[in-house]
Amino acid sequence: MKVNRTFRADSARLISLIMLTILLLVLQTAIFSNLFAGQYVPQLLAIVIMFLAFYWRTTGGLIFCWFLGLLLDFQIANLLGPSMIACVLVFLIFSTIANNLYISSQFVLVISGAVGSLLLIVIQQVIQSIFLDVGLSNLVALMKDALATALIAPLIFPILSRWFLTSSKI
Amino acid sequence: MEKRANFILTAILIFLSLLLTAYSNSNLYLAQFGNKVVMGFTSPIAGTFVYSRNWVVNYFDNYINLFHVQEENQKLQLQVEFLQAENARFRESEIENQRLHQILKFSVLQQQEGLVANVIAYSNKSQQQTITIDRGSNDGVELKQVAVDGIALLGQVISVTGNSSKILLISDPLSGVDSISQETRTRGVVQGDKENLLLWKYLPKDQPVAVGSRIITSGADGVFPHGLSVGVVIQVDNQRPGMFQEIFIKPASNLNRIETVYLLKTATDES
């Protein structure tokens, strides 16, 4: 009975996280992309990846991040795969250093947001450049996105924590 | 044990991703199908957001403009008189221009039918250079339709849903436009580059190109019709190592501030 209840709670938590992730993707692509003509766009999915790396079990987080990457690749409508690899790698990097970070600190969230955003785009574009004849975006554009992500990370992170940290790890 | 399982899982996920990358590199169907699904969610919200924002901005603009209406009206009347005089001069110039065209048997751009669309979303500039417009397959938009702004080339349609479409701008590094110099007829491929400039590629060093040369589409790639303005050469570097020169072009249209586009009818539509 107890096992059944825990399973149901975890499933509900997972479904609401999926819904929230889709909502964040819509926010990122439909609202933030149009605020400053495609500049200063926060990578909200990078914040979700950071959250998963800090609080989720590695197995569940890896699979979830892989699907997040698929969603990002679908949104870009070019190659499928680069964002998937980027999401998985960013998750692994953050889950490796998670124990050494004081994640209750706003400052750590700001720095993590900027680094996560930069890593996500750079890794995605490096992999893309292996298959296609394209270079990296200019550093200024990447830094603008990283800055926006850094500023918004301390706002999104507490929402994620409040919603999804009520029971055990998935 | 858990570390080992995670390592294997990571390897499997990365391997699967690479397989998908290799597959989608040769076959875009899956990526475009996924994009249609994602755009189905995002386009209506983006459209509503942009329309609402424009409405609010216009409302306040109109309100502020009311303060200076009379003064502005007098200025505009003067301007109308001036423009009428100028218009008469331009009409003369046009007649003269047509006569010269006939004399030189110069190929005049054909009047093309098409469709006007409004931009409802911009892509994240650091990832790709695309715009989303409020016209889709329900309005007759098709893949590879050419988007222009006046006669300046903007890009081509890469994804279509019922009520919206995505246009890959010529400033995206993945875009390629077969182009020629209007003066020397030198031919190369225009691709997107950093800092909102275009790069004119594959021009051998023995074919000199001057700064200020106008670049137009050649029509040889079968996608973009001949004679659309692409931009103006602003920098030429033929001292770099290798066979080719490095030539930077300033786009003819401001690709960061596109609000309305004109989609040219494709050859299949006309037939």
Characterise the protein shown here:
The complex is a heterodimer of chains A (170) and B (271). With 170 residues, chain A is mainly α. Chain A contains six helices and no strands. Chain A is globular. Chain B is of the alpha+beta class and 271 residues long. Chain B has a six-stranded antiparallel barrel. A six-stranded antiparallel barrel of chain B has the order 6-7-8-11-10-9. The model of chain B is unreliable at 105-109 (pLDDT under 50).
Give the topology string of chain B: H per helix, E per strand. Answer: HHHEEEEEEEEEEEEH
Tertiary shape of chain B: globular
Range of helix content of chain A? over 70%
Helix content of chain B: 25-40%
SSE order of chain A? HHHHHH
Q: Termini separation of chain A (Å)?
A: 19 Å
* Mean pLDDT reading of chain A: 83
DSSP strand tally of chain A:
0
Of all chain pairs, the largest interface belongs to: A-B, 50 and 49 residues
Topology at a glance:
The complex is a heterodimer of chains A (170) and B (271).
Chain A: H1 2-35, H2 44-55, H3 58-76, H4 82-97, H5 106-131, H6 139-164
Helix pairs in contact in A: 2-3, 2-4, 2-5, 2-6, 3-4, 4-5, 5-6
Chain B: H1 2-26, H2 29-65, H3 69-104, E1 114-122, E2 130-133, E3 146-149, E4 152-160, E5 165-169, E6 176-181, E7 187-192, E8 198-201, E9 214-217, E10 229-237, E11 246-251, E12 260-264, H4 267-270
Antiparallel strand pairs in B: 1-2, 1-12, 2-5, 3-4, 3-12, 4-5, 6-7, 6-9, 7-8, 8-11, 9-10, 10-11
Key structural traits:
heterodimer, A: 170 residues, mainly alpha, globular, B: 271 residues, alpha+beta, six-stranded antiparallel β-barrel, six-stranded antiparallel barrel
Compact overview of the structure:
The complex is a heterodimer of chains A (170) and B (271). Chain A is mainly α and 170 residues long. Chain A has 6 helices and no strands.
